[in-house]
Amino acid sequence: MSAVVDSGGIPPAPVSSDSKTFARGFKDLADGFRNSELWLHLGWTDIKQRYKRSVLGPLWITIATGVTALAMGILYGELFHMDINYFLPYVTLGFIFWGFIETTILDGSVVFSTNEGLIKQLPAPVSIHVYRNVWRSLIIFAHNVVIYVIIYAVFRPSLDWSALLVFPALGLYILNAVWVTIVFGIMSTRFRDIGQLLSTMIRLVFFMTPIIWSAKSLTDIGGGVTGRAKLAELNPMYHYLEIARAPLMGEPVAFYHWLIVIGCTLLGWMAAMFVMRNFRSRVPYWV
């Protein structure tokens, strides 16, 4: 078919595509968020499918986390000669918040590749599956919160109004969960080895993060801030845990922890928007 030409015999300029623009990336995020009924349903269905025909159902999430936290808290409390009244709530909260971080990263890295059929059959914003993953992680987190309620009833940590800081901390957790799912989810769809690498790295970072050990114990070794304590602070996960765990332990949170987490959040969202701008439209072809 011959090209359409104008009266001067010059073909019109091709229409430029706006598929790779930040505006389209933001639009995808906004459209996906407005379809909340869909991703809320999908996320809850994922939980029900995971525990289908199970007697206790999602309560296995709470039991598994609670038993692990109790065993690790008692064991490492004895090894490090920590006061169990302090250390067991410390470890429990560490497992609860780490569970949200770990679930978001690992499930987010395969959120597109494991939903190939739905992505190809249902024309919907890519962000639908991002919100679905974050919502599913929040459901699991909510089940684990029951453990802290029990721990609080037993050990009665002294709390004040600063405990309310856990809510802005959770807000930052959610913002980070979204960008983590976008970046790792889309890139893992293209390079499947990323998911395996993340699984290995998560195990390593777990032991490098003050979860089953306390950063305070490193500080107390020499009566001051030791090199080991400074090394622990190089791990961003330490700061993420600190802004959420310390308020529920009745401890003050140093302002620099918030600054580091906010800085990581901003950098992560810059990476997420870059990925959304350049690779969002390729996801259906990569899965």
The percent range for helix content is over 70%
Largest sheet entry: none
Q: Work out the strand percent.
A: under 5%
> How would the global form be characterised?
globular
Q: Termini, distance in Å?
A: 34 Å
Give the oligomer, counting copies of the same chain as homo and different chains as hetero: single chain
Could you say which structural class the secondary elements and strand pairing correspond to? mainly alpha
The SSE string, one letter per element, is HHHHHHHHHHHHH
Average pLDDT works out at 83
Gyration radius, rounded: 23 Å
Task: List unreliable stretches of 5+ residues.
Answer: none
- Tally of alpha and pi helices: 13
Number-wise, the strands total: 0
Structure description:
The protein is an all-alpha fold. 71% of the residues lie in helices and 0% in strands. It is built from 13 helices and no strands. The chain has helices at 22-34, 36-50, 59-79, 84-109, 116-121, 127-155, 166-190, 193-208, 215-220, 227-232, 236-248, 255-279, 283-286. Helix 3 packs across helix 4 (84-109), helix 4 runs antiparallel to helix 8 and helix 7 (166-190) packs antiparallel against helix 11 (236-248). The protein is globular, with a radius of gyration of 23 Å. The two termini are 34 Å apart.
